[in-house]
Design a protein that fits this description.
With 168 residues, the protein is of the alpha+beta class. The protein is 60% helix and 23% strand. The protein contains seven helices and four strands; from the N terminus they run H-H-H-E-E-H-H-E-E-H-H. A hairpin with a 2-residue loop joins strand 1 and strand 2. The longest helix is centred in the first third of the chain and has 22 residues. The protein is elongated, with a radius of gyration of 22 Å. It comes from Fusobacterium pseudoperiodonticum.
């Protein structure tokens, strides 16, 4: 019985060490990432049906922290962010709507076609893109803050923000 108790205690201590083994900057990034997805999704779900469908697609994204280099008040995290290939799907969407633009079909036809496209998109197996991001963090007033939030947001949206910027 004593041996069994020792093994259980040893396993418990090992699990506690493993669970507490992440650097503080990584924990802060993970919390921040999840909160960002939640906030963006919530705002999108307050919009029209198409926005709600896009929010559902956005929530399927994920991340993996590959490496953490934390020194004093600065940290650098090598992160891979996996997200739906929004550039591909928005390009397909615009191509699908081109006949409506050319024929001046009106707002109702536009809304109907948009809803139809995104309903079909949510039902199929999506293509994903993985983006490697070097996340720079700084400890401010005892809390880790992401410095390059735009890079992280670009990866979350599958490069769509860069594509829109290039388009303009």
């Amino acid at each position: 019985m004593k041996k069994m108790f020792r093994y259980v205690l040893l396993v418990f201590v090992f699990l506690m060490l493993v669970a507490c083994g992440k650097p503080d900057s990584q924990k802060a990034f993970e919390k921040n990432f999840k909160q960002t997805i939640t906030d963006v999704s919530k705002k999108m779900k307050d919009g029209n049906e198409v926005s709600k469908m896009l929010a559902g697609i956005l929530e399927k994204g994920s991340y993996k922290v590959n490496k953490v280099n934390e020194e004093k008040n600065m940290a650098e995290l090598d992160v891979t962010i996996k997200s739906a290939d929004f550039v591909k799907y928005m390009t397909e969407y615009l191509v699908a709507l081109k006949p409506l633009f050319d024929s001046n079909m009106g707002e109702e036809a536009f809304q109907k076609k948009s809803l139809e496209y995104f309903e079909n998109l949510t039902k199929k197996e999506l293509d994903y893109t993985e983006t490697d991001v070097t996340v720079h963090m700084e400890k401010v007033d005892g809390e880790w803050k992401v410095i390059n939030t735009e890079d992280v947001l670009t990866a979350i949206f599958g490069g769509l923000t860069d594509a829109v910027a290039d388009f303009n």
